[in-house]
């Protein structure tokens, strides 16, 4: 009696502790995104370029599903996903990608041989995917930018000790998927708060917090948060981290077509937002905390002495200008897409971190909290000032909002999007006209690159994914 009661109590406790497993979206679209995530991990593709990769996979799938409307969406999306990754990562084509495609085709056909129409469909899907990949992997993003470092001085971006190159100065000129370049330029250069957010480098009043919190190696909670969202080497990047969040908060029954539409909208928006962020980065050329604190500067209360030993908690500062946060441009874009899709910010989920398998999953009841937390993690990591995180999130949301509403999606797929997705948009939170906006440091805030020292642009993967 006693034993069985104990057993029942133990069993009940067990059931309560292990909440019903979250149903995670797993279909033809996410399976190819998972292959893309693996490529990002193993090759060390940066956050921004991984946005483009995740966007290419889903957009190719969406094109194939729409254009080959008589084909089973699983076959169309399978063929397109297979083609994108086989083109970009040929070494995994036969062992990994052919195997996954075969599984998907077998599931779609019940193991039967493909009909001639299905074979032709697969070829057509591959051709569409090839066209898309060609369109988006060359162009201005591959051109030499002629970027020059400014002479060292207050507020001027410099490489951190040990760094050899600045990360893709040409990215601001890259070809967007959805929001045209002139619109991105208008967003980032806006000076009228009544028309939208005004992007200005962090005020000097941000510095003291960044100096203290960014170097604090004794506060366990701050350090864990910095590591949890760092998503550096051997991870699928912050973009992949939020891709995993999407798989947990979207209905696990989302159709293949609607999944392709969602991931295409989300990641093309995130790529376009990254372009906008890079325009700001390489026009403001704001220094990183490590450069500022080691150089010294004049703060609100007078001179602050150089601290030659100051080191951020994340010892590797990303190799590109500080303002705004690249992490947050991505997260803002993906947050906006998720809120638009779900029609709400309120959703319960938990998520772990590939980069910190030793830390437990974190639980959330909305999407904005973790998004802001990612920004704070960059402050605690010592790689950003607070305003850069706040404004990074804004630029991400604003660009993604434009991308989401673009006529680009006025297609059959867009029309069949889930009713939920068309719920009145949650407005991007930030760009309130007249909201208090920190003012920029005066002198040298936007140094023009000087003509002295050419720096070679490079796409070489860096150890730290921005
Ligand atoms: C998704 O489903 C496929 C097919 O059922 C399965 O082989 C695969 O392991 C699943 N992936 C995940 C991440 O659960
Ligand atoms: C290719 O597949 C292998 C085996 O699964 C994996 O270890 C590697 O990371 C993959 N490479 C790419 C580029 O995805
Ligand atoms: C690729 O670019 C060409 C030329 O601009 C355009 O005609 C074609 O529709 C594009 N294809 C895709 C899939 O984006
Ligand atoms: C660093 O963290 C410790 C432990 O939480 C805390 O006591 C200390 O005040 C923090 N230091 C700074 C400079 O924030
Ligand atoms: C990433 O993986 C490589 C190869 O397995 C390993 O050498 C490296 O230490 C890893 N980096 C991190 C930061 O875990
Ligand atoms: C960052 O700035 C925002 C907006 O001013 C503020 O609400 C937030 O508390 C700041 N965060 C930190 C960690 O200082």
UniProtKB/TrEMBL annotation:
Record-linked InterPro entries: PAP2/HPO (IPR000326), PAP2/HPO_sf (IPR036938), V-haloperoxidase (IPR052559)
Alphabetical list of Pfam families matching this protein: PAP2
Superkingdom field: Eukaryota
Residues in Phosphatidic acid phosphatase type 2/haloperoxidase domain copies: 280-410
Family matches, as SUPFAM superfamilies: Acid phosphatase/Vanadium-dependent haloperoxidase
Region spans: Disordered: 415-466
Signal sequence coordinates: 1-23
Keywords, in A-Z order: Signal
Coiled-coil regions, chain positions: none
Record's protein name: Phosphatidic acid phosphatase type 2/haloperoxidase domain-containing protein
